[in-house]
């Protein structure tokens, strides 16, 4: 048997997908058909845990051997800390994909607003996230997209009040000191029109990771998996090929 006809015995890629704040597995629905062609897919959730560290520690045991973690927004904070924990435990990680996320600490203003929302829910019923909050997550030209808005609100209502309170209470600690130890290939994706995570945050994140590239999506808000799924898949595919992952 010649070398060219030898079977490919590499293990199939295994992705662990971690959604963002008040998002569930349906966040990935537009990416999923093509993603499943690239590898095996597992879904994680952020429905338990009182800190980024708690969430990461809970999910680390389900991380596939030689897996690739894909984390979006709040899930990116968790994915990044999982990658750091994996390094501490000598667990092999094939790749880390961070979408519309950061490693910066929560500001005092952000924490105060979250506490105010928690206090309001002591007196008012939970009706999902407000339309103002949902629209802010989208590109300005998509802020009246009824399909995406309905999808975001459906995830919010499905997860419910307790998950909303739990995730709202999580303070994001600064994680830049962990970045130099995350040596696996990394892809950082930012959106040009993200009103929730700045390009500067993504640039600092990518710069701090020893083996990372930064890709910027044009004409896209915070919700890149829903707004720009085809470009995300193409970017992921190219990155996998370039890194032999």
Question: Can you describe this structure in just a few lines?
Answer:
With 245 residues, this protein is an alpha/beta fold. It has helices at residues 32-38, 52-59, 74-88, 108-120, 131-136, 146-168, 199-208, 224-227, 229-243; strands spanning 14-18, 40-43, 68-72, 95-99, 186-191, 212-217. It folds into two domains: 12-105 and 173-243, 3-Layer(aba) Sandwich (Rossmann fold); 108-167, no CATH class.
Topology:
Layout: E1 14-18, H1 32-38, E2 40-43, H2 52-59, E3 68-72, H3 74-88, E4 95-99, H4 108-120, H5 131-136, H6 146-168, E5 186-191, H7 199-208, E6 212-217, H8 224-227, H9 229-243
Parallel strand pairs: 1-2, 1-3, 3-4, 4-5, 5-6
Helix pairs in contact: 2-3
What does this structure look like?
This protein is α/β, with parallel strands linked by helices. It folds into 2 domains: 12-105 and 173-243, Alpha/Beta hydrolase fold, catalytic domain (Rossmann fold); 108-167, no CATH class. It contains 9 helices and 6 strands. It has helices at residues 32-38, 52-59, 74-88, 108-120, 131-136, 146-168, 199-208, 224-227, 229-243, and strands at residues 14-18, 40-43, 68-72, 95-99, 186-191, 212-217. Strands 2-1-3-4-5-6 form a 6-stranded parallel sheet, with helices on both faces. Helix 3 (74-88) links the parallel strand 3 (68-72) and strand 4 (95-99). 36% of the residues are buried. The model is unreliable at 1-10 (pLDDT under 50).
């Amino acid at each position: 048997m010649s070398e060219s006809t030898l079977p490919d015995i590499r293990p199939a890629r295994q992705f662990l997908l971690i959604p963002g704040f008040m998002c569930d597995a349906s966040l990935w629905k537009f990416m999923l058909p093509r993603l499943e062609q690239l590898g095996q897919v597992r879904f994680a959730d952020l429905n338990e845990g009182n800190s980024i560290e708690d969430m990461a520690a809970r999910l680390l045991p389900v991380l596939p051997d030689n897996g690739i973690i894909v984390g979006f927004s709040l899930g990116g904070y968790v994915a990044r800390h999982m990658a750091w924990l994996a390094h501490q435990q000598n667990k092999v990680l094939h790749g880390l994909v961070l979408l519309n996320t950061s490693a910066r600490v929560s500001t005092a203003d952000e924490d105060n607003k979250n506490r105010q929302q928690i206090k309001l829910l002591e007196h008012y019923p939970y009706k999902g996230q407000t339309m103002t909050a949902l629209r802010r997550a989208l590109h300005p030209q998509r802020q009246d997209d009824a399909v995406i808005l309905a999808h975001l609100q459906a995830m919010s209502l499905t997860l419910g009040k307790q998950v909303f309170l739990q995730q709202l209470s999580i303070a994001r600690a600064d994680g830049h000191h962990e970045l130099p130890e995350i040596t696996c290939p990394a892809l950082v994706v930012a959106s040009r029109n993200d009103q929730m995570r700045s390009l500067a945050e993504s640039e600092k994140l990518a710069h701090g990771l020893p083996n990372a590239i930064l890709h910027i999506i044009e004409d896209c808000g915070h919700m890149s998996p829903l707004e720009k799924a085809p470009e995300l898949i193409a970017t992921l595919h190219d990155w996998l090929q370039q890194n032999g992952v």
